[in-house]
Amino acid sequence: MEHIRKQYPPFLLTANEMGKADQAAVVAGVPAMDLMAAAGKAVADAVVERWSERPTLVLCGPGNNGGDGFVVAQHLRSMDWPVRLAFLGSVDGLSTEAAHFYRAWQGDIEPFSTDLLDQTKLVIDAMFGAGLARPLEGNARDMVDAMITRNITVCAIDVPSGVDGTTGAALGKVAPAELTVTFFRKKPGHLLFPGRGLCGHLVVADIGIPESVLDELTLQTWENRPELWCQYYPWPRLDGHKYHRGHAVVYGGETMTGASRLTARGAMRVGAGLVTLAAPIKAWAVYATALTGVMVAKLEVSQESEDFDVLLLDPRHNAIVVGPGAGLAGFERIRTRKIVLKALATGRATVLDADALSAFSDDPQILFDAINGPCVMTPHDGEFARLFPEINKSPEINKSHLDDKLTRARLAAKQSGAVVVLKGADTVIASPDGRAIINSNAPADLATGGSGDVLAGFIVGLLAQGMAPFDAASAAVWMHGEVGNEIGSGLIAEDLPDHLPKVLSAFKAQYFSSHQ
Ligand SMILES: NC(=O)C1=CN([C@@H]2O[C@H](COP(=O)(O)OP(=O)(O)OC[C@H]3O[C@@H](n4cnc5c(N)ncnc54)[C@H](OP(=O)(O)O)[C@@H]3O)[C@@H](O)[C@H]2O)[C@@H](O)CC1
Ligand SMILES: Nc1ncnc2c1ncn2[C@@H]1O[C@H](COP(=O)(O)OP(=O)(O)O)[C@@H](O)[C@H]1O
Ligand SMILES: [K+]
């Protein structure tokens, strides 16, 4: 029988999980000494590939990150690189493996002093890796300060020292790396800011840990990649018709009419069979003139929510989005809340964005109590803070002394019962059941007014086509990032829906045929 290699999804491992993977590898017969040797060799290879020979300083810390540093230094020395090595700690405190490579180093061991930087063009940062427990102090901190001041080129081993690999937080000041080499799998801190911004180019090296150790871990965090959800992607069926592709309802506000129009166009482009924009009568003419493929339903102003009820009587209206341009001023706030609660009461798939979230900032529990069906919330940081003010004070956050985006999104999903898409450069998609995905493909060009409105449209369009909320949110966020990359500089929100077809075609070519 042909041997098919098991494909593992793009897991992200916390420091703790990485430690377990390491132990499982040792149990499976890979000596810890070999892992350290392979780690150091991988870093040396990456260094030689990126930089020409130059005066290099390897800064070794007191743990196994320092152990890797001894290996790198010896490899570079054996290639006749001008290498110096400074060690922070005592040999008695080293692990067996690190002590072995300390002895194997054939050059001098110099004390940690910032003077060493005078002759240095490249620093290999092997001070602290996954085991960093508190901010850097003393000589290590002085060294980092001097590296920052001198703007010295850095290659970091595992993480730039001071970055928490599990959360991406910076424990004190960190010297940014141009290259970071990590082992086996990425860690959340490589994708979450500020960590991501401090890592520079990231290389993940295979150090001989068998992938099968992943089977022994219960992992709940992934990098957003199509492999995670492509098999659920709702491609149109040859024998299908538009009602097989769902009917999305977009609630439109009275004043900011552009927002919900962007949402509606996003929903159409991502393949919803039909999209109806429910428009207050005052703004109806604006919507009706501006939209073509999207249908426009008229809501009487005095009895708005009743008209919305009537619209929802049609069971084919299977996904609803409220928020973009919904309105928060005076009466509009009350109406927005009513519309949200009506939408949630249907039990149909619902996306809540922008004003639909802020409208509940006085009493978020009313909103959370109403969420009983499939629901995706898409707050940016400001909306998140309004809706989940207590999460930053929660014991889980305080325990780690960190305002960690992954934990915050997870807690919010658990508390609200919705899939939470906590947006930004490192958007986190968290499910109430504990699963979480970190997105990594979004360009900064997406930081423009209306781009979130389009994202809400992508999500509701996928929900209308029957995708589950966590998958729909993850797929939409990834598509949004790809479209952003496709357009690049000069991107405006209006462009996003119209560039989606190109991205979908490329995605289909790469992922669909293999899943038929
Ligand atoms: N797992 C794997 O598969 C593989 C892992 N590998 C490598 O191991 C690295 C993880 O090693 P690690 O666990 O020894 O952690 P690391 O960061 O080197 O040192 C922790 C030490 O520092 C100390 N300490 C902490 N904070 C401090 C502070 N602020 N200031 C001063 N001291 C502080 C702390 O002491 P303590 O807090 O106990 O007092 C402890 O002694 C990993 O990043 C990778 O490079 C590879 O070899 C390949 C296989
Ligand atoms: N620096 C950045 N890099 C990548 N994506 C970003 C960045 N800043 C914002 N985004 C993305 O742009 C979108 C902005 O959404 P949002 O803040 O709701 O804006 P709007 O309400 O104007 O549509 C989100 O999808 C967010 O993740
Ligand atoms: K490091």
TrEMBL record:
(6S)-NADPHX binds at residues 64-68, 129-135, 158, 259, 325, 380, 453. InterPro entries: Carbohydrate_kinase_pred_CS, CARKD, Nnr, Ribokinase-like, YjeF_N_dom, YjeF_N_dom_sf. One of its GO terms (molecular function) is ATP binding. It catalyses: (6R)-NADPHX = (6S)-NADPHX; (6S)-NADPHX + ADP = AMP + phosphate + NADPH + H(+); (6R)-NADHX = (6S)-NADHX; (6S)-NADHX + ADP = AMP + phosphate + NADH + H(+). AMP binds at K423, G424, A425, D426, T427, G452. Residues 225-507 form the YjeF C-terminal domain. GO terms for biological process: metabolite repair; nicotinamide nucleotide metabolic process. Its cofactor is K(+); Mg(2+). Binds 1 potassium ion per subunit. Its EC number is 4.2.1.136, 5.1.99.6. CDD domains: YXKO-related. It comes from the Bacteria. Pfam families: Carb_kinase, YjeF_N. K(+) binds at N65, D125, S161. Residues 18-215 form the YjeF N-terminal domain. In the N-terminal section; belongs to the NnrE/AIBP family. Belongs to the NnrE/AIBP family. Homotetramer. Catalyzes the dehydration of the S-form of NAD(P)HX at the expense of ADP, which is converted to AMP. Together with NAD(P)HX epimerase, which catalyzes the epimerization of the S- and R-forms, the enzyme allows the repair of both epimers of NAD(P)HX, a damaged form of NAD(P)H that is a result of enzymatic or heat-dependent hydration. PANTHER family: ATP-DEPENDENT (S)-NAD(P)H-HYDRATE DEHYDRATASE, ATP-DEPENDENT (S)-NAD(P)H-HYDRATE DEHYDRATASE FAMILY MEMBER. HAMAP family: NADHX_dehydratase (MF_01965), NADHX_epimerase (MF_01966). This is Bifunctional NAD(P)H-hydrate repair enzyme. The gene is nnrE.
